[in-house]
Amino acid sequence: MYDLPQPDEHCSFQPLSSRENSAWSAYFKDESILEEINKDVQRTYPDMHFFVDDKKHYKALHRALFIYAKLNPGICYVQGMNEIYAPIYYVLAHDEDPECVANAEKDAFFCFVNLMSKIRDNFCETLDQSEVGIKGSLSDMMKILKRVDLELWANLKEKDINPQFYGLRWLSLLLSQEFDLPDLIRLWDSFFSAEKPTQFLLVFCCAMLMHVRYELLNGDFGENIKLLQSFPTATAAGPTDMNMLLERTKELHTVLRNSPRKSPPQSQQGVPLAQTRAALSNAASAARNLLGW
What is the mean pLDDT of residues 228-257? Predict the structure, then answer.
């Protein structure tokens, strides 16, 4: 899809050379990156005519992701970056201004680079265990859930449902694989315009968990993992409507602002788990009342 220049056949380095500065070594590395990008690009919104019927759009994604990988060797290309770039490109390619449409690929690349500068830590494996890495963000998400819905938090913990099982994809890909593109665009509008985008995303994820709380509380480990890895379009609480989730996120922000940061006291050793769950914090009770549960 994107042809690499062939190394000079008279190059002093042989194709089988293991030297890192070999032109052939660089060529083979680029070929490997291109192959990985191509696999992901071909899987990007395969049910949308915009991408499937006109291959120039896939080529635009392919070029942008490869150039980003070359300009950022520390991160290179990581699976899933196509899910970040594609919605940006799609929106700009549908602008009402023909001139903007003509420059969609350039503008999308600029926006993508700017966005990646803010979320690139999620794609950096060496930072996974740090506070600024993806696992630190998952920990923050669960701390928020504990404040707004202690019962659900305790239930997930009891069932050993580690947030990494579902949250890694949620946070690193900004929920791009959990919702259809129209809903995702609506979500990203709120995410990008939020005063604290990272905090907004974490609270929104908690709203998602609370939307399926009935299923989570009553399901076993396998059922819950399947549910969270393929977020449902409807639950016992009602249809999964984006505007509803955004409204509940706003309500949870209000709860968090009005509740103390200190976690509710834990039950002492020997106290039955049922009593522990019954001791919901004021923040959790307020959230349940606000959201009608």
Answer: 95
